[in-house]
Amino acid sequence: MVGVFLVGLGVFSTLLYQRFVLSADFATYNQAWTLIGQGHLDPLDTLRGFPFVRSQLELIMWPLALVHLVVHDSIVLLWIQDGAVAATGLVTYLWVLEYLEQQQVRPSSAIVIAAAVLLVMVVDAGAWLTVGFDFHMEPIATCFLLLGARELWRGRHGRAFVFVAVVLLCGGFAAVMVIGLGVSALLAGAATRRAGLLLVAAGLAWIGMIFLLHASEGSELPHYAYLAGRTTLPAGGVVLIVKGIVSHPGRALHTIATRLPNIWKHLRGVGIVGVVSAWGFGVPVVVMAVTALDSHSNFSSSAFQNFAVLPFVLLGTVMVLVWAAEHLRWGRAAALVVGLLVLAEAVAYGCQQDPVTVRQTLSVIPAGAVAALNNTLAKTPSDAEVVATLPINGRFSGRKYCYRVVPQLDLPVHARTVVFVFSTHHLELISPAGLQRAITYVRDDLHARVLADADGVWTFLWHPPAAMSTVNVPTTAPAG
Known about the structure:
two-stranded antiparallel sheet; 9 strands; 480 residues; 5-stranded mixed sheet
């Protein structure tokens, strides 16, 4: 089943790639992966305006870029993410099998339970939504975090910390996940309590180092300024946030209350009872608390940032139900009923949500627009600068200079060839009228050559004058 799951994820990702359904997040990682793989070891993230290394210290991108030496196509990033998601399901399945064997559950029952766990992982909407939205470090971090947690549970602390070291290389949010694992280890008992303290310390230290090295440019920390009663955060912002939560807990509680529907969405298919167990508590609760407290509600609803909730709560659900079956009167009957309800909810919700997710995601860019984008990509020199609108800039970003169309922003002109890529599909930063004004300006004022005009996609090739160092593409109506 894991093999079929992996193939399904891979096919989905390949279709997303072929249809250009890749936005700003993929663009950032694609640029860094490509440039590092070409030997530019300190690449500039031109989309956000700072060196990539300062984007939460996501150092794992450097070893990942070694793949570029063999395969230059950035679809590899999506396949790596698919592998991490599928591997997370496999590790969860194997851990459940070991746990059931430890608890001396009958082999026939153990196989059924473990198979049900694997089925839940495969059909859960969170996995498909995760791979359906660009590339992110969270699925990779979750896979290695789960491996580390399993080794802790086995008593192999040395191996556990090797996996945790890989997790930390995935950046600042991964360090938050490590803190969550430390909480679980503290709750799991005396055998893992010392390791738990070390994990919490390691996560906090890594976050502190990120800020000391000024490598937090890609963090969402300003979104938490409201917890400190501020609109912006100076140096030491984390301390101010903690003080604000302690002195005015009502702010945090109110925000979490408004995020409960999003939290339920992550828990509904894996059994909310799982958070009662030690291993199902730490990572999910810490992760969901951090995303829920973000002032932008989309972070609490996004699947990729909450992907770690899925395996740990599901594992915890098995542990809670097995314990109930062994220790409570009528426990076996109750565990069977709850287990069947969890499985039914997971399958029903997944079968309802997953096909919709796949269809809607793949239909974002129509066939005619895909053909126009492929034609443009084929005609874009490797050393050209690209300026693209947000929804489709991902595949165009594997180059030294790429930018997105932003209102009232002077864009640097570095290359002697600039390609503009405009799309009406899922505009976020500019209005349709603003996009039309930008197209008119590039075509009529810059006299750029039209490369494609089809199904809401307009692309142009422009050779700027030698003396021109910036260009401002207007996306608003002129004053007066």
